[in-house]
Design goal:
four-stranded parallel β-sheet; 14 helices; binds guanine; binds fe (iii) ion
Length: 452
Amino acid sequence: MAQETSPLAFHGTVIHSLSPSELEILEDCLLVVAGDGTIQAIHKSVPRSDVDALLSALGHTPDVISVRYLDRGQFLCPGFVDTHNHAPQWAQRGVGRGQSLLDWLEEVTFAHEAKFEDPGYARRMYAACVRGFVRQGITTAAYYGSKHGEASKILAETCLALGQRALVGKCNMNRNAPDWYRDASAADSLRETHDFLDHLRRLDPERRLVTPVLTPRFAISCDRDLLAGLGDLARAHPDLPIQTHFDEAEQEMAFTRQLFPEFPHEAALYEHFGLLTERTILAHCIFVSEEELRLLEERRCGIAHCPIANTTVGPFMVAPVREYLRRGLKVGLGTDSGGGYSSSMLDVMRQAFVVSLARQTQTHGRDPAWTLAECFFLATLGGAQVCGLDAKIGNFAVGKAFDALEVHTTVETGIMAPVEEDDSTEVVWEKFLMTGDDRNIARVYVQGRSIK
Ligand code: GUN
Ligand code: FE
């Protein structure tokens, strides 16, 4: 499906990350997007009077190509990458605070996800969910679906139809959940997964927007046959991403040890079943031992840091994320919507900052708090690395897909800290990150297509 759009050009401020510590601000930048949605050219410091000549030199007819001139207070930045998101929890976000993780799953979540048995409900709810995330600038999401193969296909179709880039997984779970909400057996779960993978291969054969992802919910909800079957699938298709929850809560880890006494820790467990690969996305990673860390480093796994869920489901928990980045592990941010009460990556960046301050205090300064530039990196390029998509998205470079946000910081209806005459571009960006919201995200582009 080589969808073509009209070529597009922007002139103005462009902000993106080159690395965790390098934020690049390009003023008077001319950024040109080709008809296939990839970035054709990036020229910095171009006077407005030179734009037409440069566009001609790039093979465009200035009167024909649409050029968006960004005013002061407006800028382009990469779209946000949400590395951990439960799409069927869209309508239960924030419900059940004060419960432990496992109680919250039993008492709130499973009953809610069970509704996705009904394809009509799935269609309605997933359309609302994907629209909601897109409106808030999430151009790529790694979604857990419900246990239902049919509803998970609908989720993938919805992402494709609405133009959002996504990893979509049918959730595998055949035990420790009520019989009205679990896969009947390992064989059934695997059969549905195969069927789901076939469907996605037909839907988007080149994975232009939608990629299937193996999704064992966590070891508690999968028996050995199911984990082994998923491991076989991962070995047969090394390009398949995998996602699961990892060392998320003490209660969860204790129950996992009880179910799998043969393994010293979760890393050994997932490693045994062939589920730790460079395509694996491990959500939370709060209580990771030194031995586990070494294994994650060796396997080059990615980490989805979910600071909102970590501090509001069960106790307040602080993941040692600075250490992960120091060791060169891939790290991104996740809303974990609806365990995370917010579906906004701006909120997630803010909470990552808050939690990193707690960590700084806890470690007497050994793990310094994130800078805002680092939070922004985690929400964009870091997330793209975790999803195995950094060759394609995460920042702006010639040949990459144009997945971007057009941010307008002076919006009548907004509540962002007002931009003042003497604010530098960096201050404007900082005000947006700390006080802006979806009203400031004027347009959202995925693969060059405007979807908000
Ligand atoms: N562990 C297993 N399932 C879930 C879930 O839905 N949300 C979170 N945060 N953790 C989980
Ligand atoms: Fe989760």
